[in-house]
Write a structure and sequence with these properties.
4 helices, 30% helix
Length: 101
């Protein structure tokens, strides 16, 4: 299991972690606040808002790993692939979730 989602695109089996685009967006907001006069020490620490579970189905097939139909990996996110994806035909399945605030 990897923390960086890009490792799955390179052939790793599974990754779970904060999305890089969300992390970079948060960093940009911090930079903006500091450049507009806020003190860095006064800014609150924020947790990532979006996490993503990424499964490389080709690697799973090679390793003989299966996922149940009710698992998040079998549903897809609908953002980067069709929600009616067949697991056997999928390359990389991505499931994004938002953290409830």
């Amino acid at each position: 299991m990897f923390r960086l989602l890009e490792f799955v695109d390179a052939g790793g089996l599974i990754a779970y972690g904060a999305t890089l685009d969300g992390t970079f967006a948060s960093a940009a907001l911090y930079v903006d606040r500091i450049l507009t006069g806020a003190k860095a020490g006064d800014l609150p620490i924020e947790q990532p808002k979006y996490f993503e579970l990424v499964v490389n189905m080709k690697s799973a097939k090679i390793l003989d790993v299966t996922f149940s139909k009710s698992s998040p990996a079998s549903r897809g996110s609908g953002q980067r692939m069709a929600p009616t994806v067949k697991l056997e035909d999928a390359g990389v399945v991505r499931c994004r979730c938002a953290v409830a605030s």
